[in-house]
Each structure stands twice: as structure tokens, then as C-alpha cells.
Design brief:
By secondary structure, this protein is of the alpha/beta class. It contains 17 helices and 17 strands.
């Protein structure tokens, strides 16, 4: 079982293509099924701790994987029961069922009363490709079985989630402890709400190669400490443009400092301010911004946290967009991105990072349906920017079509100011020539280390320890 960090993510169509390539290279459907079922059986055997196992099989090849797993488990001395939703409908699944050597029970509500006999549940009903709503009776029965099982495990995907969008196709899906992704991850493993239904996700190798996809799971960045000859400007200058809510821009500025930037300028209406004293505060003016950035090779601007939405805020945003420096647009500034400003953003020569949460995304790009990945890619193409679409799952999409997905992080991030911290950290990374992905990882890691009930100020301070660990 392989952890998911850095792993490729394949859509249902990409997964079918990968399987077709494996078959063209000499593997058969039956061989792929045998590898998948054996991998599931080994994982279940290790986790079941000799407990009896109930395997639920569907009519397709996902059910065939379940039949193979049942046969292998039984061969290894594990007590196994199998229940099926009708007869297998594919040749490979029929062969797997014929070689089972067990009586198959019908899938139904009668299983619920007997589930205490088999506290480990393996769901191999529906796998990749499901796009229709699950029958209510099937969904209710499956949800009850998952709820009363000590260890519910899904094969490839929990039955009842959409592979590509991560949508729940039933109202009564349970929450699994573990999902065993066959061959590669799918979007539903990392996109909400399906990711929460999946529980922990691990990848099983079934012999597929050339897993071609521009989508990946976020991984720990490999950026290391500053080089021996580093100085404050080579590590990156970040200019944060403040506004109506100075606390928000101060949070972004402190986060940029603690994420590794060498010099931070906070532009606000007054030169005064509270510690940290290493933060340089300067009165705002367009000329002051341009002068501070003149000749700096490693620099970036952050605009939006606490900016406000009045005329002065618009002027500040326009000044930032007109510069030839990498730019992070967050918070209030996103609400000011009308069609004309979005065209200005698309015409910039330097990198632009947009960091919307769901409400800000709607304000800039309108409503969307379907996959959050697809919506982020469309937004990135329209704005010629990198879009960091925040949320319980965070999707980072570039205008070139690359996608990184950060699976669900700490729910304690749902507090005021954490987005400002992320904007500042992204500013530090792009000023130093790194990708915004590194900032998203550090932000999530800082939250993980803090545990719970933290505030945004704690999160910003924790970035120092996280950055030092890289």
C-alpha cells in the first residue's frame, strides 16, 4: 500500500486508457483483476487481525476484484462471507466468481442483522465510472452495513461517489476507514465530499505503467535552507499592500516573513505598528511601491488581505496589477476583479496567483458545476494565472493545465485570517522562485502541528518551525 503524497491522479477516462495500454502490452483483464484482488486480500488480511470478513460484490469488474480477494483470503485461512448484487455481468467477473468455492449470499437488508458476525466489511460493489444515483434501497443498506462495521474498506472507490467530481451520488453513504485505490488515485479520492467518505486512502500497484496525467497530489516540497551566500534580498522581498483592515495585511506580512522571505514591506496608511520589529512599515503611495521594488530580482507583491472594496482599494489593486512583479491577489482584491481587471491580469508578463475560496471564486468566475479540478483549470486558462482554489480540499491549477490537489486539511483552519496567512506564505515562495504549492503544503503542515483550537496568529508563527524543517 502506497501513501498518496505526490501520486498522479487519473480521471475515469485516463484510468481506462491506462488499463487498455496494459492489455495492449500483454496483460489480460483477468490478470489485472487477479493482481487487484490479491492486493486487496493482502491489505485486508493484515488489517483484519483474524476477524471474519464480509465482501460485497457488484455485477461488474469491481465485483470481480472482490471475488478474487475472497478466494485469496479464504486460502490464507481468513473466515470470509460473500454477498452479491446479482450475477456477474462481465466475463472476467464470472470467471472470478466461478473460482470462488463459496456460496454467495444475496445482497439485502438481512445482511445488517448478521453483520456482527463479520466486523470487517469490504465494499466491491461499484468502482470507477459510476455516474448515476445509486438505488435508494441499495444505498440505505450499504450505509447501514458501513455504519455497523468495525473496519469498513472500499475497493477502488466507495460505492456511490462520482469518480471525477467527487460528488456523492446517494444521500446515505457511510464513512469508510480505508479506501484501496487500484492502480492509481482518482479525483474522488482527494476531492470533497468523496474524500471524507473514503477515509484514509492507499494505492495498490496492479501492474499499470505510463500513468499519464497532469494532475498530482500535493507533496512535501524539496526547497531546503537558504544557500550559504544568501542575503535578505536574494531570499525574496515581499511587499504587502494594506487597507481598511490592517490586521489582515499584518498577518499576511508576518506569514511571509516566517515562510522564509528575507525582507518584508507592509504598506499601510501609517508608518506605526506593533511588532514584529523586523517588519518594515511604510506609508502607501504608488511611487513608494515602485521605488521599493526597483531593481529587485527576487520580489513579489501581495494585495487583498484587508484591502477593502472602495475606490482607494481599486487604485491600489490597479497599481499592483500594472507592476512587472509576481503578484498574489487575495481576499477583497478578488471581489474587485471585474471583467476589465481580469483582462489586465491575463495580460501581465509576470506570474499572477489568485487565491479564492468558494465565495470569492464565484465572485470572479461565476457558478460552476462538476469537478472542482475542471473549474479551477477553466479559471486558470481565462485569467492566465495560477488559481489556488481554497477549501476543505485545495486545488492549484496553472494556465498550462497542471493541477496539484491538497487533500482535506485541519478543520480548525476554518477561522478568520488563515487565508491571509496563506497569501503571505505564497508571496514568500514566489518571491524566492518557488511554486505556490510549497506554501499550501507549509500552511497545512503548520495547522497539523498546532493540533486544534488555534487562531491565525498561531498559524503564522508556526510557519517558522515548518520552514526550518525543510
Amino acid at each position: 500500500m502506497t501513501p498518496i503524497d505526490g501520486q498522479p491522479i487519473l480521471t475515469a477516462a485516463q484510468m481506462r486508457a491506462a488499463e487498455d495500454r496494459a492489455i495492449a502490452a500483454g496483460s489480460s483483464v483477468e490478470e489485472l483483476m487477479e493482481r487487484a484482488g490479491a492486493g486487496v486480500a493482502e491489505a485486508v488480511r493484515r488489517l483484519a487481525a483474524e476477524s471474519p470478513v464480509l465482501i460485497l460484490c457488484g455485477p461488474g469488474n469491481n465485483g470481480g476484484d472482490g471475488y478474487v480477494a475472497a478466494r485469496v483470503l479464504r486460502k490464507n485461512g481468513v473466515e470470509v462471507r460473500v454477498a452479491a448484487m446479482g450475477d456477474p455481468k462481465t466475463d472476467a467477473a464470472r470467471k472470478a466468481c466461478e473460482g470462488l468455492g463459496l456460496d454467495v449470499e444475496p445482497f439485502g437488508v438481512d445482511l445488517i442483522d448478521r453483520q456482527k458476525q463479520s466486523p470487517v466489511l469490504v465494499d466491491a460493489i461499484f468502482g470507477t465510472g459510476l455516474s448515476r444515483e445509486v438505488d435508494a434501497r441499495v444505498a440505505d443498506t450499504l450505509g447501514s452495513l458501513v455504519a455497523c462495521s468495525r473496519l469498513p474498506i472500499a475497493v477502488d472507490l466507495p460505492s456511490g461517489v462520482d469518480t471525477d467530481s467527487g460528488a456523492a451520488l446517494s444521500r446515505s453513504l457511510g464513512h469508510y476507514r480505508l479506501t484501496l485505490a487500484l492502480g492509481a488515485l482518482k479525483p474522488a479520492h482527494v476531492l470533497e465530499p468523496a474524500a471524507q467518505i473514503c477515509g484514509a486512502v492507499r494505492v495498490l500497484d496492479i501492474g499499470l505503467h505510463d500513468l499519464l496525467s497532469p494532475y498530482r497530489v500535493l507533496a512535501k516540497p524539496d526547497i531546503g535552507p537558504p544557500p550559504a551566500d544568501a542575503h535578505k534580498y536574494s531570499r525574496g522581498l515581499v511587499a504587502v499592500i494594506g487597507g481598511d483592515m490592517p490586521g489582515a495585511s499584518a498577518l499576511a506580512a508576518e506569514a511571509a516573513m516566517r515562510a522564509g522571505a528575507g525582507y518584508i514591506l507592509l504598506f499601510n496608511e501609517s508608518g506605526a505598528g506593533d511588532p514584529p520589529h523586523a517588519l518594515v512599515r511604510q506609508k502607501w503611495s504608488p511611487s513608494a511601491l515602485r521605488t521599493s521594488l526597483d531593481g529587485k530580482k527576487a520580489a513579489a507583491i501581495v494585495v487583498g488581505p484587508g484591502l477593502g472594496r472602495g475606490k482607494e482599494a481599486e487604485r491600489k489593486l490597479d497599481t499592483a496589477i500594472e507592476t512587472d512583479m509576481p503578484l498574489v491577489i487575495d481576499g477583497d482584491a478578488l471581489h474587485l476583479l471585474d471583467a476589465d481587471r481580469l483582462k489586465m491580469v491575463a495580460g501581465r508578463r509576470s506570474a499572477t496567483i489568485l487565491t479564492p475560496h468558494a465565495g470569492e471564486f464565484k465572485a470572479v468566475f461565476g457558478d460552476y458545476s462538476g469537478s472542482k479540478i475542471d473549474a479551477s483549470l477553466r479559471a486558470a486558462a481565462r485569467s492566465a494565472a495560477t488559481v489556488v482554489f481554497k477549501g476543505p480540499d485545495t486545488v492549484i491549477a496553472t494556465a498550462h493545465g497542471d493541477v496539484t490537489v491538497a487533500p482535506a486539511g485541519s478543520s480548525w483552519l476554518s477561522t478568520a485570517g488563515t487565508g491571509d496567512v496563506l497569501a503571505g506564505a505564497i508571496g514568500a515562495m514566489i518571491a524566492a522562485g518557488e511554486a505556490p504549492d510549497a506554501a499550501v503544503w507549509m500552511h497545512g503542515e503548520a495547522a497539523r502541528r498546532l493540533g486544534g483550537s488555534f487562531i491565525a496568529d498561531d498559524l503564522a508563527r508556526e510557519l517558522s518551525a515548518v520552514r526550518a524543517s525543510l
